[in-house]
Design a protein that fits this description.
mainly alpha, Serine Threonine Protein Phosphatase 5, Tetratricopeptide repeat, two-stranded antiparallel ribbon, 2 domains, about 500 residues, single chain, 21 helices, disordered N terminus
């Protein structure tokens, strides 16, 4: 089984590198592609972590669930809070972490690949535990040793393991050598160390309700990382995938057959209009009915969203009448699109600003907040061609950003709760057509911004709220029933339900 997986990855790498791609620079002999090298395995592991898992319609599910958009091909479960069972398939790629490390054994870059393995494991396990709660961790991925039914570790133990792996990775990257096979940072270990530290800050932020736990040392760890000064310095450090005009590297929604179906939500449109946020003109196209009524593309009132919790038939009526704004055409007209990030400088700034307000570290929260807002706006402007078709005559400039930062509702002032809400609002804006699952987890963590709930259309079993987790995979119930049932009993009194609170939410 292991050999089949390895050669499948080799085939994948050949497909990705067959067109002089800049996604990866393998430095391998093209006549010897059957040889497993750490570079080759690293490339595939990094791409499988960083690359968005789907294209076309599937690429939009995260934005439906985060209430950025509605989708008009038909009523969609994610829009109406219908989620079911998840899957543990992301773990499959981690079976090659040990292969990568063994392939690098004895080389001058061995420590680099070991550190990379810890980062990739931590990121993958972090996202899996966020989705369900307790997961296999300490006994996971040991099928080669005959352990086919791993136990489920408590979510606390999983988080302790993740934090330990990230700290090990950061320390090792700090003294390791640059390595080959990296499509994100070109093997620069200094950048990988920064990304590792940023990921740990993000992990710690999800332990908000566990700051009194002496084993976790949330504030102590957070403060140590911030004071290390080994963090992103700008958006150039983002952990992101940059697309190109090579076919296998197109932006996931480019030239999509589903381009006409996504329409903008009031959850983002109305708030951007209220705050005077120029990103609205980069995120959306004007509603045709508003243009017909005499508005021009640079008018705020040319942009109209729809409550995504409304009855689908009612939304469809407005959609047919062209009363609602679609997403900006740049998302399906541009081959390169914009990078998709999993960790960003802007988010790092918002995390630190929140940490300062919560007393986890010292510093000026306003400075970090302002830097985060500025970076998020600049990211949108930088990766959008300076074309009126894509910013509709409302170009983001330095003056626009400065004016925005001093505007009512944006300026970093008010009570502690008001400042926190401003941070959370800006993180919500930042996530549009990016990692909507992250936006959902932030909403679940903070309760902000308020998501529209309509009891008559909500497909969650609890009609008054959004679900808070996925259920365990069907395959786990089939092949590892005893261990998964023990975890369900331990956490949820035997009720594997989407509305049950996992440990980090209690």
């Amino acid at each position: 089984m292991r050999r089949v997986l390895i050669y499948s990855l080799i085939t994948l790498a050949v497909l990705f590198t067959g067109s002089c791609s800049k996604f990866e620079d393998l430095n391998t002999d093209p006549d010897n592609t059957s040889k497993v090298t750490p570079q080759l395995l690293a490339t595939n592991l990094i791409l499988q972590t960083a690359k968005y898992p789907s294209v076309g319609k599937d690429f939009l599910y995260k934005d439906m669930f985060a209430k950025y958009i509605s989708y008009m091909e038909g009523s969609t479960g994610y829009q109406y809070n219908k989620i079911d069972r998840t899957y543990f398939s992301p773990l499959v790629k981690l079976t090659n972490v040990e292969e990568m490390i063994q392939a690098a054994k004895g080389s001058v870059t061995e420590d680099s690949y070991v550190a990379l393995g810890h980062f990739l494991r931590a990121y993958t396990f972090f996202n899996l535990t966020l989705s369900v709660g307790d997961i296999p961790y300490s006994e996971a991925l040991q099928g080669e040793s005959g352990l086919y039914n791993p136990k489920y570790d408590t979510q606390k133990d999983v988080f302790l393991g993740i934090l330990s792996e990230l700290e090990t990775a950061s320390e090792m990257f700090g003294s390791a050598r640059d390595f080959d096979g990296d499509p994100i940072y070109k093997g620069k270990v200094a950048k990988w160390q920064k990304a590792t530290n940023v990921l740990e800050l993000k992990v710690l932020s999800h332990l908000l309700k566990k700051t009194d736990d002496p084993d976790l040392r949330v504030a102590e760890r957070f403060n140590s990382i911030v004071n290390s000064n080994k963090l992103f310095q700008s958006s150039n450090d983002n952990f992101q995938l940059v697309y190109s005009n090579v076919q296998v590297e197109y932006y996931p929604f480019f030239n999509s057959n589903f381009r006409k179906y996504p329409i903008m939500s009031t959850t983002i449109v109305d708030k951007m209009k209220e705050l005077g946020d120029y990103r609205l003109f980069y995120f959306a196209d004007p509603a045709n009915a508003q243009l017909g009524a005499g508005y021009v593309a640079s008018d705020w009132e040319a942009y109209v969203g729809v409550d995504p919790s409304d009855n689908y038939n009612d939304i469809s009526s407005d959609y047919t009448a062209k009363k609602i704004s679609g997403i900006n055409s740049r998302y399906y007209m541009l081959e390169q699109g914009e990078p998709t990030f999993l960790l960003s400088y802007a988010e790092q700034c918002f995390i630190i600003a929140e940490g300062i307000l919560r007393g986890w570290t010292n510093g000026d929260a306003k400075t970090f907040y302002d830097q985060g807002v500025q970076a998020a706006l600049q990211f949108t402007a930088y990766y959008t061609p300076d074309n009126s078709s894509y910013h509709h005559g409302r170009k983001i400039t330095t003056d626009v950003i400065n004016t925005y930062l001093s505007a009512d509702g944006v300026a970093f002032s008010g009570t502690l709760e008001e400042k926190l809400q401003k941070i959370f609002q800006q993180r919500y804006f930042m996530g549009f057509m990016q990692d909507g699952w992250n936006t959902y987890y932030e909403y679940r963590r903070t309760g902000y911004p308020a998501m529209p709930i309509n009891e008559s259309t909500n497909q969650n079993s609890d009609k008054t709220k959004m679900p808070v987790r996925w259920m365990y995979p069907e395959k786990e119930l089939s092949y590892n029933r005893a261990n998964v049932e023990e975890a369900i009993n331990r956490q949820f009194n035997g009720n594997d339900d989407v509305n049950e609170l996992m440990w980090i939410l209690k």
